[in-house]
Amino acid sequence: RWETPNIAFKPYPACHYIHASLDATRELIAEQPIEAEEIEEIVNRRLREVGLRNAGQKMPNELSGGMRKRAGFARALVLEPEIVLFDEPDSGIDPVRTALLCELIKEIHEENGGTYVVITHDIMSARRIAEYIAVLWRGRVVEAGPSEQLFESENEFVRQFLSGESAGPLGMG
Predict the structure, then answer these.
(1) Element (H or E) spanning 24, and its range?
(2) What distance in Å separates the CA atoms of residue 151 and residue 58, rounded to the nearest whole number?
(3) Pairwise CA distance, residues 36 & 116, whole Å
(4) Which residues lie below 8 Å from residue 122, measured CB to CB, with a gap of 6+?
(5) Nearest to 129 by CA among 147, 149, 143, 113
(6) How far apart are the C-alpha atoms of 103 and 85, rounded to whole Å?
(7) What own/partner pairs with CB < 8 Å and gap ≥ 24 does 70-74 have?
(8) What does each C-alpha distance from 120 to 55, 102, 134, 136 come to in angstroms?
(9) Angle at the Cα of 115 (from 110 to 117), degrees rounded to 5?
(10) What CA–CA distance (Å, rounded) separates 127 from 71?
(11) Residue 156's closest CA among 141, 139, 143?
């Protein structure tokens, strides 16, 4: 592991090429005692892991929303962080790509370990990914625990929120 303890997931790289988006990360790991060839291999391995083997030189307008999300994921993984933060990774992509992204997150987590924190309003994504859930409301944790436990919660608010029902204590006001 490198000296950077955590990396925030970016929805897509803000640059001209996926390859160029990894330049800043390359600079960070270039300060480590490893050879340039190894740095390139690390970057390319991460791109392959997220299914972007042949997309390294594409322009942003040539990338789908899902590809942009995966490029950000690859960038975060280059430094082998112990903590990866995903902020709404499922926003702006269709349901099928969302399911595939959830599978990818789980797969890579199983391979790499560490802690993955996923912030989402998409309950299906939470069901697919989460081992542990914390339901927050107005800056406070309402309930937290293993995902199976929360989906069976006796707390009316948590039950309503996780089921998406309109009837319950959570209203429009």
Answers:
(1) helix 23-30
(2) 41
(3) 28
(4) 90, 91, 98
(5) 147
(6) 16
(7) 70/101, 70/104, 71/12, 71/13, 71/18, 71/21, 71/47, 72/9, 72/10, 72/11, 72/12, 72/13, 73/9, 73/104, 73/105, 73/108, 74/18, 74/22, 74/43, 74/46, 74/47, 74/49, 74/50
(8) 27, 11, 11, 11
(9) 110
(10) 24
(11) 143
Q: What is the pLDDT of residues 106-148, one digit of tens each?
A: 998 998 898 999 999 999 999 999 999 999 998 999 999 999 9
Q: How far apart are CA 25 and CA 47, in angstroms?
A: 13
Type of residue numbered 106? K
10, 78 Cβ separation under 8 angstroms: no
Residue 3 phi/psi, 5-degree rounding, is: -80, -5
Q: Are 106 and 128 in contact (CB under 8 A)?
A: yes
- CA pair distance 128, 119, nearest whole angstrom: 13
Q: Is residue 43 within 8 Å of residue 22, measured between CB atoms?
A: yes
- Note the pTM of the prediction, 2 decimals: 0.75
For 121, the token pair is 């309003």
Consecutive H or E run containing 143: strand 140-146
How does pLDDT run across 47-97, given as a tens digit for each residue? 888 888 877 677 767 877 778 788 778 878 877 888 888 888 888 888 998
